[in-house]
Amino acid sequence: MTDWQETAKAVDRIVYLAEAGKRAAVATVVRIEGSAYRRPGAKFLVEEGGQTLGGVSGGCLEADVREVALAAMRDGVPRLLHYDTGSDEQRVWGLGLGCNGSVDVFVQPATSEAALLVAARVKELLKGETPFAVSTLVEGPGYVGSALVLGSVGVLAGSMGGSHPESEIAALALDQLAKGESALHAVGAGRVFTEVYLPPPHLIVFGAGDDSIPLVGYAAAAGFRVTVVDHRSGYLTPERFPAATRLLRLRPEEDPSPLPIGPRSYVVLKTHSLAHDREWVKRLLFTEIPYIGLLGPGKRKELILDQIGSTGSHRVFGPVGLDLGAEGPEQIALSIVAELLAVRSGREPRHLRAREGTIHAA
User: Fold this and answer.
1) pTM of the model
2) Peptide bond into 319 cis (omega under 30)
3) Separation between Cα atoms, residue 295 and residue 269, nearest integer Å
């Protein structure tokens, strides 16, 4: 779910560089097989001065991809790279990394006129809440690197230059958009990578005390759009919560309509007030929010649910967080974010060494 956030950073940087008259290239993971550190859609931006942003692996491929990106800037020619991360006996590109997988990475100039037109539309869409997709020709005859931006209503921007049937590509993209998955498809004699962008989930943190500061930072870094709510305006400052998407002054008895309440929103209550927590839980249980994290011991949760006549709600997680042996605001914040990710993905928390199959499998 970090694709949305990472792409926003990359696009902002691309637009800035283009306006400054500088070049850049972007590398995108378009296919993985077996074990891989990043999923399709992961991006690695390389500037003409060599500076980079993002990544396509855990650090093992970036040096090579950077050199290829610099070459793509010089000659304007996109490249589709294949890396085998298996044993030394299965080397491709001279890299035997022992990860038992393979990765395909598409590298293309990012500051060409056509690329910037697509980037401008993507930048606009990333500010909203609507899913969309970008289909890019990564291999085959025609204008490799050409792209279409698509939404539920069809093509929003871009062009394939007449070299491939846009109607077929659009149909494939809409199918992937409905599935919510990025994919690499064969289209005629070429291949098209369709990257699906789903709006990131919201986290609403009630309570702007000091212990909320690390939670907001970690949750934002994990890809959540974070709203911080408190009735004390002095606590709601960008200096305290630089990673927050929104700071909202609100009391439990006031109109909650400004809140991003819905099935893609998660809540953590850290008001340190029994009365405030009780009123927020009472109101939130009438919404579609799937997760209401409640600070404090289990007896406090039971008391609150008993007082509002809603004992045993499965959506109220209290004490909030996973049992990691956490101590202090930072560690507790990590345990909360870990629980949020597990709940969102429908996973039962456990050690990865106990998992069979690939790590990133659904």
Assistant:
1) 0.84
2) yes
3) 6
